[in-house]
Amino acid sequence: FQTFEGNLKWDHTDVTYRILNYSPDMEASLTDDAFARAFKVWSDVSPLTFTRLHEGIADIMISFGKAEHGDFYPFDGKDGLLAHAYPPGEGLQGDAHFDDDEYWTLGTGPAIQTRYGNAEGDLCHFPFLFEGTSYSTCTTEGRSDNLPWCATTANYDQDKKYGFCPSENLFTFGGNSNEDPCVFPFVYEGVKYDSCTTEGRSDGYRWCATTANYDKDKKYGFCPNRDTAVIGGNSEGEPCHFPFTFLGKTYSSCTSDGRSDRKLWCATTSSFDDDSKWGFCPDRGYSLFLVAAHEFGHALGLDHSNVRDALMYPMYSYIEGFPLHQDDIEGIQYLYGPKTGPDPTPPQPQTTTSSTATPTKPSPSDTTTVSISTTSRNVPSVDVCQIKTFDAITEIQKELHFFKDGHYWKIPLKGERTGPFLISEKWPVLPATINAAFEDQLTKKIYFFSDKQFWVYSGTEVHGPRKIEKLGLPSNMGRVEGAVQRGKSKVLLFSGENYWRFDVKTQLIDSGYPRITESVFGGVPTNSQDVFLYGEFMYFCQGSFYWRMNSRRQVDKIGYIKNDLLNC
Amino acid sequence: LCIPLKSVYVTFPGDVVKNMTDKQLAENYLKQYGYIDVHQRNGLQGVVSTSKALKKLQKQLGLEETGSLDQSTIDAMKQPRCGVPDVRK
Question: Are B83 and A83 within 8 A, CB to CB?
Answer without folding.
Answer: yes
